[in-house]
């Protein structure tokens, strides 16, 4: 039995990969309509509810999380009486944007200039170090571009001082990147690591819209830098499971932005586009099974469906399309599903992508 803290779409896709391997799932999620619940048992409770945690520890051989804002103390408590993979240390390291940047630097990864601001009134000092434009972010709790804003002028700074009162902050020099990439890797209990190819990501309003995998035109040296970053992070955290690192590419440099100690939205293409999906590899890792190869088997484009989804009839008319609906009530800005287009030529993939334009829930950048 596998316990999962969080019962959203990532938990749902973990179960879709783990059930065929013979596992049963229990999800802890306070939402009565948690969309993973159809695939297992659902404990409707807060992530730090003592009774739910006790029940997980009592019934599960291993517990994992699919939501990174799970309180570290909840993970630590579960870990006292059963296995929790990845461990609470990895969870904690990913929760504070300042600690994350310091960790990246200590592991020899490049990051953009940054400065901590313990209160909004320190913003002026922080900006003296990063320059403008800058991005100010809450150190904790932010996701999908929430809890951050771009500062271009002194008047933005004054506005941010008001809006962010009460939050510990980090200010980052805004990176004029060529593109955004991510690397997804998995580490087994024995310390074996597999890395997926770099993925090119396009965001709109802070939310991932499109991922292309393998990312087009990646120099071998850039791929190997990303892989060595992933390996150092995994080894440093004595990590078991799947991790994702978000990177900015500037020329042939990679600046590390943040990491997620879990399966990642930019890895959904691996379900159809890689020899082993990120979900299966996560399940394999946490259940002490050998990892499967992370080799791509096709060119993939993953399009997130935000706020609303097309009908299966409309979506599946597109050649090479695979539809994943999460069973969530549509709401503005909510990820309700994704569509992966698969092709054996990257050129043809562009034509397929053109056919997605105008489908409900899709918003594609120029590619
Ligand atoms: N320092 C930065 N320079 C340029 N763009 C940034 C910077 N930080 C964040 N962004 C943009 O905002 C997006 C969301 O920020 P991120 O740090 O990944 O937070 P989260 O994904 O947790 O909301 C990034 O994918 C990127 O497009
Ligand atoms: Mg991000």
**Structural class determined from secondary elements:** alpha+beta
Mean pLDDT: 95
- Relative helix content: 25-40%
Bound molecules: adenosine-5'-diphosphate, magnesium ion
Give the percentage of residues in beta strands.
Answer: 25-35%
Give the helices and strands as they follow along the chain.
EHEEHEHEHHEHEEHEEEEEHEEHHEHEEH
Task: Report the sheet with the most strands, covering strand number, pairing sense and barrel closure.
Answer: 9 strands, antiparallel
Task: Sum up the structure in keywords.
367 residues; alpha+beta; 5-stranded parallel sheet; 12 helices; 30% helix; binds magnesium ion
Can you put this structure into words, describing what you see?
- The protein is α+β, with helices and mostly antiparallel strands.
- It contains twelve helices and 18 strands.
- The chain has helices at residues 9-18, 50-59, 72-81, 88-93, 97-106, 123-130, 154-163, 220-236, 270-273, 278-286, 312-315, 346-356; strands spanning 2-5, 25-28, 41-43, 62-65, 83-84, 114-117, 134-138, 148-151, 169-173, 179-187, 193-195, 199-204, 207-213, 241-250, 253-260, 299-306, 321-325, 335-343.
- The strands form three sheets. Strands 10, 11, 12, 13, 14, 15, 16, 17 and 18 form a nine-stranded antiparallel sheet that branches. A five-stranded parallel sheet has the order 3-2-1-4-5, with helices on both faces.
- α1 (9-18) packs across α10 (278-286) and α2 (50-59) runs parallel beside α3.
- The chain starts with a strand and ends in an 11-residue tail after the last helix.
- Magnesium ion is lined by residues 246, 258.
């Amino acid at each position: 039995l596998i316990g999962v803290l969080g019962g959203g779409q990532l938990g749902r896709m973990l179960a879709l990969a783990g059930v065929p391997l013979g596992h049963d799932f229990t999800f802890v999620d306070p939402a009565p309509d948690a969309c993973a619940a159809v695939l297992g048992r659902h404990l409707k409770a807060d992530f730090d509810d003592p009774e739910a945690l006790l029940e997980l520890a009592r019934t599960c051989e291993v517990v994992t999380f699919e939501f990174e804002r799970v309180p570290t103390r909840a993970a630590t408590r579960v870990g006292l009486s059963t296995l929790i993979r990845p461990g609470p240390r990895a969870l904690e390291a990913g929760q504070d944007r300042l600690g994350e940047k310091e960790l990246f630097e200590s592991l020899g990864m490049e990051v953009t200039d940054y400065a901590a601001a313990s209160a909004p009134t320190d913003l002026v000092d922080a900006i003296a170090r990063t320059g403008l434009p800058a991005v100010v972010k809450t150190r904790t709790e932010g996701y999908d571009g929430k809890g951050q804003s771009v500062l271009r002028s002194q008047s933005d700074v004054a506005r941010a001082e008001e809006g962010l009162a009460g939050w510990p902050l980090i200010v980052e020099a805004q990176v004029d990147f060529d593109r955004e990439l991510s690397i997804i890797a998995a580490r087994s209990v024995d310390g074996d690591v597999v890395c997926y190819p770099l993925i090119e990501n396009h965001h709109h309003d802070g939310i991932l819209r499109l991922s292309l995998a393998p990312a087009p035109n990646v120099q071998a040296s850039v791929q190997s830098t990303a892989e060595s970053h992933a390996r150092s992070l995994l080894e440093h955290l004595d990590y078991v499971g799947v991790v994702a690192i978000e990177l900015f590419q500037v020329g042939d440099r990679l600046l590390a932005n943040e990491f997620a100690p879990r399966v990642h939205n930019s890895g959904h293409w691996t379900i159809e586009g890689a020899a082993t999906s990120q979900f299966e590899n996560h399940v394999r890792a946490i259940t002490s099974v050998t990892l499967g190869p992370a080799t791509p088997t096709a060119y993939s484009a993953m399009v997130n469906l935000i706020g609303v989804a097309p009908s299966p009839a409309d979506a599946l008319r597109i050649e090479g399309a695979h539809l994943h609906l999460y069973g969530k009530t549509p709401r503005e800005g909510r990820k309700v599903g994704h569509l992966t287009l698969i092709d054996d030529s990257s050129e043809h993939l562009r034509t397929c992508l053109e056919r997605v334009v105008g489908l409900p829930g899709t918003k594609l950048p120029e590619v």
